[in-house]
Design goal:
Layout: E1 7-12, E2 25-29, H1 34-41, E3 47-50, E4 60-61, H2 69-76, E5 77-78, H3 85-95, E6 100-101, H4 102-108, H5 110-113, E7 118-125, E8 130-132, E9 136-140, H6 142-159, E10 162-168, H7 171-181, E11 190-193, H8 199-210, E12 216-220, H9 222-225, E13 242-244, H10 255-269, H11 275-290
The structure holds zinc ion.
InterPro entries: DNase_TatD-rel_CS, Metal_Hydrolase, Metallo-hydrolase/TatD-type, TatD-like
GO molecular function: hydrolase activity, acting on ester bonds
Keywords: Hydrolase
């Protein structure tokens, strides 16, 4: 019986390589932009997501008339005030593509969304800096990130899809957006991917509102949650909300090792008798999340 329970990965990625390896691991493959979404759409993986990662949100607009590339990027990116306007124009011209109208992408893929399991990876990131032209750093305005995030939450709501959320230092905004757009829909579950904010916030906001209805999950990664910077005391999180994840490209040479590492650490944190017990727990959580 134990051997029939597969390993699961609740959040991973893909490059443009044509095949998905390690077919014995059940994988939820997220998309972060249109390139990886197109790759994942052409795979026969069953658990795929559509998302615009906050790090790529500047490439998209919700305005039908976003054709003026320079004015779009000037409105969504924050450059150093020391950079002359002409230099900014030149950087935009040389290093950024024509913006994409997200509403057109959504309209063109309506059939496809019905076959997906997730909207993800989506979210907000206050710490990220975008590098352009090798040396110029700028930030994607939070205002713009909010708009793209909200639009994708509306999409999750429309198609009753679970969301896999990346949040760096926007915890309250992320919560209130979900509260407004997703909490009213009982068919949408929320997976906080590599959550690394406070335990208090987790308990008093996310768990308090969604735990009783089994609508909140935390996908735990080696690189964030078992890292020195980790703020979470995993032992205090209800174990039926925990999912394992790699957040790696499925072709990464460390992919399997990284997933096993999470399983082994969760096994000891929750005092489970052996790896099979851990596999059964995480598979039960995973099945519940997909129900
Ligand atoms: Zn990710």
């Amino acid at each position: 019986m134990e051997n029939t329970v597969p390993l699961v990965d609740a959040h991973c990625h893909i490059d443009n390589t044509a095949t998905i390896p390690n077919s014995d691991i059940v994988k939820c493959i997220m998309a972060t932009n249109l390139d990886d979404f197109n790759t994942v759409s052409n795979q026969n993986n069953k658990l795929n997501g559509f998302g615009i990662h906050p790090w790529y949100s500047h490439l998209f607009s919700l305005n039908a008339d976003c054709n003026d590339k320079v004015s779009h990027y000037k409105s969504v990116l924050h450059f150093s005030p020391n950079l002359p306007d002409s230099k900014i124009d030149q950087i935009i011209e040389n290093s950024l593509p024509q913006p994409t109208n997200l509403n057109v992408v959504i309209q063109d893929n309506l059939d496809c969304f019905a076959t997906l399991k997730f909207i993800g990876e989506i979210g907000l990131d206050k710490s990220f800096s975008l590098k352009l032209d090798d040396s110029i750093e700028c930030q994607i305005k939070l205002d713009h990130q909010f708009k793209i995030f909200e639009r994708l939450c509306q999409l999750a709501n429309q198609f009753n899809l679970n969301v896999s959320i990346h949040d760096v230092k926007c915890t309250m905004y992320c919560f209130t957006t979900c509260e407004k757009l997703l909490f009213p829909n009982p068919n949408v579950k929320i997976i906080l991917h590599s959550y690394n904010s406070s335990m208090d916030f987790l308990q008093n906001f996310w768990l308090k509102n969604l735990y009783d209805d089994k609508r909140i999950y935390l996908s735990i990664s080696k690189k964030i949650n078992f890292n020195k910077s980790n703020k979470l005391n995993i032992k205090l999180i209800p174990k039926d909300t925990i999912l394992p994840e790699t957040d790696l490209n499925v072709h990464d040479p460390n992919y399997c090792e990284s997933l096993i590492y999470v399983y082994e650490h969760l096994m000891s944190i929750y005092n489970l008798s052996d790896l099979d017990a851990c596999k059964r727990l995480l598979y039960a959580n995973f099945s519940q999340m997909l129900e």
